[in-house]
């Protein structure tokens, strides 16, 4: 245990600013989720009352809070559905996700420099996985990013890892858009339906619950298949 701790400290030291950022990205969104969950009924109506300005505030807040690893994306996507409904909430949430991913990429790129690549180069297994993931063409890189995002990986931590390993920025943005949209849509759909279900006719409630179950199942299946595909591409390493 002591040896493992020493090695972990050495890796964190060599990562420089990327080490603390990784810890923040792995823990802070979960803590932030608690505070946001308790303020839904206050924040949602307030944003809705501001009309277009509310949408702009929502997207800007999404970009900053998710890009800085303060709040998780799924709960903020749900807030978009709660505040604006499906037609406005979904594109607003997707825009927030892409903006946050871009911000996270820039921060990760500047914070880690080439430290992660040097660490990878020293470890044969890490190097093999890296080459399997990103050593091929642009389209292969794009496919891997799509699969990683669809595999329900932590958003902020994934931003940092992909930036640190110098994923092509276009593949990063496009892959994020394709891979993360299904679960973003599921979160928005959930919030929209939850807001309406209390006032709905019992028969309509069952329709909503059935649609939600199908949506969640689809996202989980996509995530599972994507995880298996990533494992297959990397040879299970």
Poorly predicted runs of 5 or more residues: 1-5, 7-12
Shape: globular
> How confident is the prediction overall: mean pLDDT?
75
| String of helices and strands | HHHHHHHHHHH
Binned, the helix content reads over 70%
Q: Strand tally, please? A: 0
> Strand share of the residues?
under 5%
* Ends apart, CA distance between termini: 23 Å
The biggest sheet, with number of strands, parallel, antiparallel or mixed sense and barrel status, is: none
Radius of gyration: 19 Å
Category by helix and strand content: mainly alpha
What is the count of distinct domains? Answer: 1
Put simply, the count of helices is 11
Describe the structure.
This protein has 237 residues and is mainly α. The chain has one domain. It is 86% helix and 0% strand. The protein is built from eleven helices and no strands. The protein has helices spanning 2-15, 18-37, 40-49, 52-67, 73-112, 115-122, 124-134, 138-150, 155-164, 169-197, 202-233. Helix 2 (18-37) runs antiparallel to helix 9 (155-164) and helix 3 (40-49) crosses helix 5. The protein is globular, with a radius of gyration of 19 Å. The protein starts with a helix and ends with a helix. Mean pLDDT is 75; it is low at 1-5 and 7-12.
């Amino acid at each position: 245990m002591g040896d493992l701790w020493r090695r972990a400290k050495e890796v964190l030291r060599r990562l420089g600013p990327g080490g603390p950022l990784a810890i923040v990205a792995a823990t802070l969104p979960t803590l932030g989720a608690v505070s946001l969950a308790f303020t839904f009924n206050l924040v949602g109506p307030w944003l809705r009352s501001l009309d277009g300005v509310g949408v702009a505030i929502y997207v800007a807040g999404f970009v900053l809070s998710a890009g800085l690893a303060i709040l998780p994306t799924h709960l903020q996507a749900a807030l978009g559905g709660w505040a604006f409904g499906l037609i406005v909430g979904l594109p607003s949430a997707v825009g927030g996700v892409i903006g946050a991913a871009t911000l996270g990429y820039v921060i990760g790129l500047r914070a880690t420099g080439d430290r992660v690549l040097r660490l990878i180069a020293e470890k044969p297994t890490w190097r093999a996985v890296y080459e399997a993931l990103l050593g091929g063409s642009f389209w292969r890189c794009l496919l891997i990013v799509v699969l990683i995002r669809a595999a329900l990986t932590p958003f902020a931590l994934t931003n940092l890892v992909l930036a640190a390993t110098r994923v092509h920025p276009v593949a990063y943005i496009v892959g994020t858009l394709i891979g993360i949209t299904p679960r973003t849509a599921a979160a928005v759909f959930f919030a929209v339906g939850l807001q309406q279900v209390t006032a709905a006719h019992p028969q309509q409630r069952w329709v909503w619950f059935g649609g939600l179950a199908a949506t969640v199942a689809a996202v989980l299946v996509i995530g599972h298949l994507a995880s298996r595909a990533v494992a297959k591409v990397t040879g299970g390493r």
